[in-house]
Design goal:
27% strand; globular
Length: 177
């Protein structure tokens, strides 16, 4: 059995901004008893922020703590890019997802990839082509940052048919922990 380490207590953690809830699981995989290499490390943190004043700041602070727990340096260009992406996506959800009381943020990191996902419950469809309008500067910035790290952006419909998730992938630079 692989050991599992919980990075911090789930839901209602002392010191979280009002309304921010979530959990974090960082799975550390060692060498299998057979001597075979272990599967890649998978680190994942997910939490919910209310779409209210202060939500961008709360999302950014929680993201920064998660990235540090993942082993990324707080001063790296990747960390800066991810923090800006989360800020832009939560700001967009706050501004445009009027039918969603909150947004779910997920960070998922493997040995070679960091994925940021921000989901809301607003049923109105949205496409990357919509970012071509003058008001789409934030999403264009997100796409540019993802491309800087060899990644991409896509918008997926919610599994339950209501809402959407903006998924941003970053290819991790060589030497990233």
């Amino acid at each position: 059995m692989w050991p599992t380490i919980t990075a911090w207590p789930p839901k209602g953690t002392v010191g979280e901004p009002d309304g921010v809830t979530g959990s974090a699981v960082a799975t550390v995989m060692a060498r299998h008893p057979s001597g075979q290499p272990a599967p890649p490390q998978v680190r994942k943190h997910a939490w919910t922020v209310p779409l209210a004043p202060g939500s961008v700041r709360a999302a950014r602070e929680r993201t920064e703590r998660s990235l540090v727990l993942f082993g990324l340096e707080g001063t790296s260009s990747l960390t800066g890019a991810v923090l800006l992406v989360v800020s832009e996506l939560v700001a967009n959800a706050s501004r445009h997802a009027q039918h969603s009381p909150d947004a779910e943020i997920t960070l998922h990191m493997t040995d070679h990839l960091l994925v940021v996902a921000v989901a809301d419950l607003d049923p109105r469809p949205f496409t990357l082509a919509d970012a071509g309008r003058a008001s789409g500067q934030g999403l264009r910035t997100v796409a540019d940052l993802a491309r800087t790290f060899g990644g991409d952006v896509r918008i997926e419909p919610a599994a339950g048919g209501r809402g959407k998730t903006v998924v941003v992938r970053f290819i991790l630079p060589e030497g990233t922990p």
